[in-house]
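Per reviewer request, we include the raw input and output of the structure prediction for the construct analysed in the revised manuscript.
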Amino acid sequence: MKAEPSRRDFLSAGASVFGAAAMSTAATPARASSAQGEQTPPPETGAPSRRYLLRGGAVLSMDPQVGNFAQGDVLIEGKRIVAVGARLQAPGAEVIDASGTIVMPGFVDTHHHQYQTALRSYLSDGLLSDDGLPHGEKNYLDYINNRITPVFRPEDAYLAELVSSLSQLDAGVTTVVDTSQVGHSRQHTDAVIRGLQDAGRRAVFVYSPGVGPQNIFPRDLPRLRSQYFSSTDQLLTLAMGGEVFDPAFRTYWALGRQNNLPIVTHLVGALGQETLVEQLDSERLLGPDLEFIHATRLSARSWRAIARAGVGISVAAPIEMTMRHGMPPLQAALDAGVQPSLSTDVECTMAADFFTQMRSVFTLQRALINERALNGEQNLPELLTCRDVIRFATVEGARVARLSHKIGALTPGKEADILMLRADTLNVAPLNNVPGAVVTLMDRSNVDTVIVAGRIRKWKGVLLDVNWPSLLRSLEASRDYLLRAAGVPRALF
């Protein structure tokens, strides 16, 4: 079997296409002259005892006890946040000028099939399944799940994981719950994990089955735990895949719980799962260790059971609206007292940045409630605010990923997963409202600096340590192989 490409093949400290784009006035918003300064990042960020200070940004901490600051500072030592406040004194710390930026926690994506990166936009017009209704001929289950996924090689999985992770880092998504269901063999699973590791981003790897004679799920769990997840003090953590469409899911859930692992499953009412949660509740199988993805078209009793049990919810609103999963269950969740997290799902259909996710959720919920108001209803739910949506994207994402003890807010003692978003750019300035600017005005071009566990990964609009031309050539070759092996066309137009 061909060896998987290594990080050395793709990552280098040299110039990248991201860097070239960042220096082009056509590719990045105009910046105020005061934003210019250091041309290289401080060295050895994230190393133990290494101290640096983000000085003078608009700090959106997402921690009510910490508060927010029109001009605030964040002090980082090693991989942790030491202090957040105004005019902090930090002798010996290197100072990074954060003026003109919004400083906030990194985004948390609670559901992403990263192995599909080479298939970006392939299914832009497709649906989830051929449900017998109009429009379903080209659909995810037939094309992506049943035809293309089975032909993946380990090297395709590795490359996709690496590129997807780097791309989301570039967009400010510092954490992902990776639901890459491509574990066709031990080698495939190892390749997925290595791709996550080499990207240097925080990730929850959801151990999942593949297809074919070498699929050994879930028997490989003991090896994976000992080889990759023996420490809890690392960026990569483990979760158990236990899809409810698999007749053996109760066995997988029990195995996950025996190993004290979170359990992740898709749940789509339109696929015959409208009342499944009621059955699971009667069996006492619900709990806060569960993450339900989508949770569309569920019964009211299901939502009450989810709320009682503290089950986490991951809403992928653009995908759910586009692919006929059903209406994103934002209001159903909120009415039941459930705070959802956000996720991107599949790049074969939609972009994986969180500005797309936040704006979709914000506009959809408000459109539905506003329409009810215009139709004469009086007792209406509250409209979502921009701050609510940012909370879904950070605090609630960390909770659903079971990482609240590490990330989700700018809280002293938590690990430093931090964004600096440029607010002095042509598309945002002048800054009048911080949450509003993030949700209603910004896009990935505003992501200036990205920090993961104290280590700077993107600096002044440039993703560090990436050889994009090499990655691009390999990704195109992977795409060509996958489509050819699956016998499906590439319809460029």
